[in-house]
Specification:
188 residues; mainly alpha; 9 helices
Length: 188
């Protein structure tokens, strides 16, 4: 099914109003494009994934600044490219300080409340089966799922535990839920 540019703009406008389903749509729709771009650049899947998560976190944090006369994917790619360049510079300078300009802002755009369809699908699973599905995820996705669903931590607590910016945690959890829901749906 082809998605029109009008639909994209509609979701961007909803995201600007803080609507959870719009963030989820944009993440799902653009993930492969941004991730694929980064895999080609850094030639490392884990690093590409981290950069992609950070890029979405930053984009969602700054979404109200996005000009709808431009292409959203180009904006996302530019953000991811800048993050990757920064990371490379830091690595090359052998100074790696874990900073982000969103760390001081308590970003509440991706709301912590109402269960998503993925949440419902995840919680309806038999525990033994669910643990088998979770084991199929990459370790950093297993970790956020464990902290969120089994240790019942808030986004803020997960952020502190993992020593990662809140926005990165939110995006990683969105992505983990989507991947887990796909695994459950395929097996079901």
């Amino acid at each position: 099914m082809e998605i029109t540019s009008e639909e994209i703009v509609f979701h961007i406008q909803k995201a600007k109003k803080g609507k959870q389903d719009a963030f989820k749509f944009l993440l799902d729709y653009y993930w492969n494009e941004v991730y694929g771009f980064q895999v080609k650049r850094v030639r490392n899947e884990l690093e590409a994934e981290d950069i992609t998560i950070e890029a979405f976190a930053k984009a969602f944090d700054k979404i109200e600044t996005f000009d709808e006369n431009y292409t959203f994917s180009t904006w996302l790619i530019a953000i991811s490219k800048n993050i990757q360049i920064d990371k490379t510079r830091k690595k090359n300078a052998s100074i790696y300080i874990n900073t982000t300009d969103t760390s001081n802002e308590q970003v509440q755009k991706i709301v912590d409340h109402s269960p998503t369809p993925e949440d419902k699908l995840i919680t309806e699973q038999n525990l033994a089966e669910l643990l088998q599905y979770i084991k199929q995820l990459k370790p950093h996705y297993q970790e956020v799922i464990n902290l969120r669903y089994f240790q019942e931590m808030s986004y803020n607590d997960i952020s502190e535990t993992l020593e990662e910016p809140l926005n990165n945690v939110k995006v990683r959890l969105l992505r983990a839920r989507k991947l887990l829901a796909e695994i459950i749906t395929q097996k079901g």
